[in-house]
Amino acid sequence: MAAVAASKPFKTGLKQVFLPNHVITFCRPSRQATPPQFATFKVPLHFNKLDMRDYLLHAYSVATLGVRSAVMRQPIFRNPITRRVQRPPAIKYMTVELQKPFVWPKEPNKEERKQWHDEQTEKRVQLQEKQDQAMEKYQKHGRLQNDAVEKRSANRTQLAKQAKDLLSGAAKWDNRRDLDPKWTES
Amino acid sequence: MAASAPIRSSIERVLRTASRGPATASSLNLPVRGSLSCPSNTASFSTTSSLDARRPTRDNNRLRGLSSIHRSGTKGRMAVDGFATPRPAAYQPKITTDPNHGLWDFFYAKDKAIPTPDEDSQHGRAWIVEELRHKSWEDLHRLWWVCVKERNRIATATRERSRLKLQVGMDASKTRNYEVWKTMKAIKHTLTERYYVWEDARALAEKDPEIDLSGEGNPYTPGDYLEQDTERLALESEAAVAREQEKFMEEKPATETMDPSSLPKTEQAQGSPRV
Fold it and tell me: Where is this region: Disordered (chain A) (predicted)?
């Protein structure tokens, strides 16, 4: 730590905090294109940029070149008990520019996910996810969206293809029956 | 009309090149006064006609309608028109993270972002207050920072798990976090206790003649215990002599009786029960 303090390229704060109680969450970059020189953290609302810079330097020996902060307002919700509309406290994110790049470790693939979820749990979670999304859409649009509306079924796609072929002449219509000679075309 | 599309585009191209040519409408509309052979050095009476002939624009913004992201293309003729311009290569730089990078402390392992539920549940119990009472401030402070970093690690893993929609493993993580929290609570308990003890010790020291709280010189100057002992012995022997004398006096018959009115009034007042 002393080596870091000696090589620090900026003047750090003088106030000593002996028993800090903050929880800093390191967030995976949301965009694929985020350069590895940037790292985003979820920090307490009272944190400022200088706090963040000194915290990373002293606790993690990570030198930073700059800090950007953003306070994200959270969406409102209706409290199920009081029936009042409430807004959860905002969340502060800070993106620091690192002196040394850092690439996040890979996320577990489909095979590795089995260490957490067996097949049944995975199915249940996916179903729950689907229902949640449907509920969200219902609340947004005011009508229930089902699969038939959401996407074309395989039957319908096949029927459309057959109709198109028939109209263009690629396929000939046939009901596999001999036509009565009365109706033969002249 | 499928065949007409390429024809239409070629006509458009021809028209476009024609409009870019030198013989534009504006150049033809320049006002010419007098004969062409003797150029006059006087300014034209009015420039309105030539200004009118300019391309009508809404404002003087030269770059209106140009966009680098919507593929609007260039407006004017450019020197590179007609040449194959280089295109950006699909190049992804290979970045290697320093194995000693400080941000690795936010993870349990370098090869995976989150621990499995089995790994997460492999932890012991929290420190209890009785164990921490024997530790120095330096040790407690170090332990506190270990706890802080562990909580950061747990929070990072929890966020990642919820992002990946992994419900299993949340409970193990929560239990782990609770143990860390309990340790932090115990550290604060120990320090508070220690503070109260210090307060009491200070109050005692203020009364103690052997302790000097002025902050100058030696704070503790113990008295000589041998000296104390002799003093005590001397006092005891004196007391014994006095007792013997009292005995001797008591043996004499008490002829005179004590008059209660001669007792001091203050003693009486003190002896009376308070209401």
Answer: 108-156
